[in-house]
Design goal:
This is Radical SAM core domain-containing protein. One of its GO terms (biological process) is defense response to virus. Its cofactor is [4Fe-4S] cluster. By secondary structure, the chain is α/β, with parallel strands linked by helices. The chain has a single domain, classed as TIM Barrel, CATH 3.20.20.70. 43% of the residues lie in helices and 11% in strands. The chain has 15 helices and eight strands. The chain has an eight-stranded parallel beta sheet. It is elongated and about 90 Å long. It starts with a helix and ends with a helix. The structure holds iron/sulfur cluster. The site of iron/sulfur cluster has 11 residues, from loops.
């Protein structure tokens, strides 16, 4: 009898041990994906008509505010630390956007909340009201010659004046001002250095124009960006002309293509290999939605997707860089790197740094 019981106990223990090993093996082979940084394109509507746009307005749906807040809460529980609101043009829904920005900081306490906008609908009042909850405001501008902006489809000739206004408002109300430029056939030879020095963005991201299958790559799609494309050497030519700006961050086609984790207006993750989107995270949950789509997490890290993305982290990376400078000066009589908050060397922080800054 005792032997029988021992045998059963041994059998149960072995069974549990094998199950545990299987679980460990599964986790090793399919590590849990953490949606650290999510780009939420909550609308496809836009008042501009950039010829290379690949988030074209095939519909004008936006999810109701309560659903959106619930979805953001689910993402925060799954590990999201940074969210970026994008479109379309997010400021076409300024009230909705303000509610989301405040919710992400006041309720979810995210490390970083940012917005990418074409700038045309940004108003000083909005920044006065919400900038304290906004880490980064990125505005797109591809040229400092309005004729080029008009040819591209970015506005009707008032884009640059508005860009300068926004940069000043950001300084006044305490959000970091970032600039995004798409380098394409119309602007790759332009010298933008003097304007960048005057605007002094914290980060200037320059993307090589991108063709996205089924979105902007033929006469059948709403936009046909083929006439905007440039060779890699032409992108490199632009980069070499502007690389001395400490805020300059180039992003080639190769890195850009699949490395952004994108939530669309229906609260679905987009598959970055061209397959169908996931189910809505409100219906299937974050983990299942993430596991059903492809997202290039290595590319995300490679393109510097994890960086000092709020003012505290920038201060920290500045102090670290200054510390390195001091140490190097003491040891070799030399200063290393650049201590500007917008420099690439100053921006880089480890995955571990971010992970240890638990705010939830
Ligand atoms: S401003 Fe942005 S969303 Fe609007 S058309 Fe241009 S690229 Fe597309």
């Amino acid at each position: 009898m005792l032997l029988d019981n021992l045998y059963i106990l041994f059998f149960l223990f072995s069974f549990a041990f094998i199950k545990w090993l299987q679980h460990l093996l599964h986790r090793k082979m399919h590590p849990k994906i953490i949606p650290l940084s999510v780009n939420y394109h909550f609308t496809r509507k836009c008042n501009y008509e950039c010829g290379f746009c690949f988030h074209t307005d095939t519909n004008s749906y936006i999810a109701p505010l309560p659903d959106t807040k619930a979805a953001l809460s689910l993402l925060a529980l799954a590990g999201m630390k940074k969210t970026n609101f994008a479109g379309g043009e997010p400021f076409l829904y300024a009230h909705h956007l303000g509610e989301l920005v405040d919710y992400c900081k006041d309720i979810l306490h995210l490390d970083s909340v940012s917005i990418v906008s074409n700038g045309s609908h940004i108003r000083e009042d909005w920044l006065k009201q919400h900038a304290h909850n906004l880490d980064i405001l990125a505005v797109s501008c591809d040229s400092f010659d309005e004729r080029t902006n008009i040819a591209i489809g970015r506005g009707k000739g008032t884009h640059i004046a508005q860009l300068y206004r926004i940069a000043n408002w950001c300084r006044t109300y305490g959000a970091l001002f970032k600039l995004n430029s798409v380098i394409n056939r119309y602007n790759w030879q332009e010298d933008m250095n003097s304007h960048i020095a005057k605007l002094d963005p914290y980060r200037w991201k320059c993307f090589q124009v991108l063709l996205v299958e089924g979105e902007n790559d033929s006469e059948q799609t709403k936009r046909d960006a083929r006439k905007f494309t440039i060779l890699d050497e032409e992108f490199e030519h632009f980069c070499s002309k502007h690389r001395d700006n400490p805020c300059f961050v180039p992003e080639s086609n190769k890195l850009m293509a699949k490395s952004y984790l994108i939530l669309d207006e229906h609260l679905r993750f987009l598959d970055r290999s061209g397959k169908a989107p996931s189910g809505s995270i409100m219906e299937v949950g974050v983990e299942k939605a993430l596991s059903s789509v492809f997202w290039d997490m290595d590319g995300f890290k490679e393109r510097g997707g994890i960086y000092a993305w709020n003012q505290d982290q920038i201060e920290k990376s500045k102090e670290e860089a200054e510390g390195q400078n001091l140490a190097a000066t003491k040891r070799f009589g030399l200063a290393v790197g650049d201590t500007c908050g917008g420099s690439q060397s100053g921006e880089a922080v480890d995955m571990e740094d971010i992970g240890s800054k638990k705010t939830l």
